[in-house]
Amino acid sequence: SLRYQLIEEVRVGTRIADLADDAKLKAKYPQNILQQLQYGFLSQPTTNISVGTTNGLLFTRGRIDRDTICPGMRVCEVHLDIAVKPVAYFQIIKVTVEIVDLNDNKPEFPEPEITLSILESATPESGFVLPSAMDNDGPGFSIQRYELITDANKSKFSLKVNKNLDGSMDVRLVLERRLDREAQDRYSIKVIAYDGGSTPRSGSLSVNIHVIDTNDNEPVFDQTTYGVSVIENVPIRTVIATVHAADHDQGPNGLVRYGFSKHTTDKHGHLFGIDQESGEIYVKGIIDHEESDIYHLMVVAQDLGPGSLPTDATVVIHVQDINDNKPEITINTITEPNTDRAEIEEDSPPGTFVAHVSVTDKDDGVNGQFTCSLSERSFTLERRFPTEYQIVTNQTLDREKRASYSLAIVCRDHGKDKKISIEHLRVSVLDRNDNYPIFTERTYTASLIENNFVGKFIVHVNATDADVNENARVMYQLDGTRDSSFFTIDGDGKIRAKLSIDREVRRKFQFKVWAFDRGSPRRTGTADISIIVEDINDNSPVFLFPTLYNHSLTISNRVPVGFAITQIRAHDDDTREAAQLAYQITQGNDDEVFDLDPRYGTLTLKSSLGGISHRRYDLVLAVSDHGSPQQTAQGILNI
User: Fold this and answer.
1) Under 8 Å CB-to-CB from 384, ≥6 apart: which residues?
2) CATH number for the domain that contains residue 29
3) 343 and 407 part of one domain
4) What would the pLDDT profile of 51-71 be if each residue is shown by its tens digit?
5) Which one of 212, 241, 261 terminates a domain?
6) Mainly resides where (predicted)?
7) 566: Cβ–Cβ under 8 A, 6 or more apart, which residues?
8) Domain boundary at 164, 188, 212, which?
9) Is 107 a domain residue?
10) Residue 255 domain flag
């Protein structure tokens, strides 16, 4: 905790302290870290004091008037909590600034002049209450003494000053010698009040005294000081004490009426009242121990006779505490004060700061002591000071397993009738790009019929990423190999043909597809693509024998029936049914001398050639595939 003194009424902008230096931050951190630090109040002070956000200088931003900030207080202190951010260097600097009083107010009486009536029968040493002067300065410069100024009449009066428990002064004019109204019925005196400055300031009261004849007894209280104890929050109109004063005169001169002094009425009249006839003191407002635990009331008694002489007594009221206040919980995060929401990045290490928690209880003793706990096991509530905690992570958080947490901060006081407060903090786990895109299949196999049109859809690939937002947005790309150059892929993962493909040129394509997310660092997933080119019947069979240049053969008329003369051969570049061939003789075999195996193309002798000495056969051959539409080729064989 840092302490400073500040003289009131200094000029605006006066520098109070360099927190970075005094809190030893300049010694602790290098210059590049100091430039990152930011300073701010946990709660905005009511006084005109500010802190530099980036340099940590504490300075005044308006008028500093101690008499307004701490009226009547002996010591005037302003307590400040300054938070140092960002979270990596978070700490709280506790600062106490004592406002030093100046003697900038002079004593003033309620009125500059009063008239006082005194019975000529008044006995020497009789006292007459005079109004007290007020000085708005602190106790050090408050009113210290009174002085009586008279001329030739000095020997008739003196001044008696009593200091009360509440700090006020009772000023009485004391009669030194008997008065003789017939000799002199008027006196004029002056009372001077001086404050406590090194060069005291003063205020004056002119007192005009009229000497009259009236009753000569004043009320006398049973005791000069009454003590009473009362619990706080006592119901309105409850009688808490009774005072009594006796007057030995008779008739109206002996009837006593009660009231409070002007000072008591001004200061405590909203809380206490007194019955004028019975002297019963009762409660008018809410008595709160946390506001004040003791009250001093000055009661004045006066009879109803002419020129009545007032007398007074003091009533001291002690207020007993009850457990009527719950702990008050305030949550501050790095981003904003007094909030119910916080954010933290996933994968942050255990012990990472989440929020600062301040707890206060206005009660006293055990009623004002408390213990706090946290509902969620993934976080820990650490006590840093008697009234301050911080919430930190207890383990590494994974957003893909749980994206948010609802924390309940529960504080219980130690009183007999325990008071409980609960505040909730919602912690959102921010995504980090810690997941890779994953394809729904490791290998995608698809087919493509040859002679396709450009842009033909082939296969749809899909990859998902367990992250969110940009970290989960997936882009696709082919691997850039020769096989992949025949295809394109769009943003939805649809692969299409870039060219028309001939199966007879290329029957199969294999390449990889990549999936990238848009996070940082970028994560990548891969899958294999296998595309089979399907055949269509776009090729006719071609004879390998006979051909244009090789289509004749000679056989003997002695070959037996069933003799395999030759093998008719053909080829088709298509596949499957489109490449399965069937052979037949379409012309030149009217007498069925030859037989042609339709499947294997074997040409055999079906009839005997024994009776033929010389002959030429011109066979027209056909070969057809089984595709759709069927393709056919013709050839000529000369035998």
Assistant:
1) 92, 390
2) 2.60.40.60
3) yes
4) 999 999 999 999 998 888 888
5) 212
6) membrane
7) 545, 553, 603, 637
8) 212
9) no
10) yes
Q: CA–CA separation, 428 vs 340, rounded Å?
A: 11
Q: Is the peptide bond before 521 cis (omega within 30 degrees of 0)?
A: yes
End-to-end CA distance of the chain: 122
Strands annotated E in 169-255: 169-175, 186-195, 202-212, 220-221, 225-231, 239-242, 245-246
CB 426 within 8 A of CB 406: yes
Spatial separation of the C-alpha atoms in residues 561 and 75, rounded to whole Å? 140
Report the alpha-carbon angle 616-619-623, nearest 5: 160
Is 588 within 8 Å of 604 (Cβ atoms)?
no
Spatial strand order of the sheet with 38-41 comes to: 2-7, 91-100, 77-85, 38-41
Q: Measured between alpha carbons, how far is 70 from 139 in angstroms, rounded to an integer?
A: 11
pLDDT tens per residue, range 259-317:
999 999 999 999 999 999 999 999 999 998 888 889 999 999 999 888 787 899 999 99
> Which residues are paired to 527 by β-bridges?
513
Residue 105 lies in a domain: no
Q: Is 353 part of a structural domain of the chain? A: yes
Residue with tokens 């056909």: 622
Nearest to 311 by CA among 261, 249, 251: 261
Inter-residue contact 555 to 639 (CB < 8 Å): yes
- Tokens representing residue 170 in the block: 């009772």
> What's at 114, amino acid-wise?
I
Domain residues for 335?
328-429
Q: Count of domains in the chain?
A: 6
CB-based burial, 336-360: b 16+ in 10 Å, e otherwise: ebeeeebebebebeeebbbbbbbbe
* Rg (alpha carbons) of the chain, rounded to whole number: 56
Do residues 39 and 131 touch, judged by C-beta distance below 8 A?
no
Residues 625 and 565 in one domain: yes
pTM: 0.47
pLDDT of res. 584: 94
Q: Is 497 helix (H, G, I), strand (E, B) or coil?
A: strand
Q: What does DSSP assign to residue 323?
A: S
- Say yes or no: 273 and 239 in one domain: yes
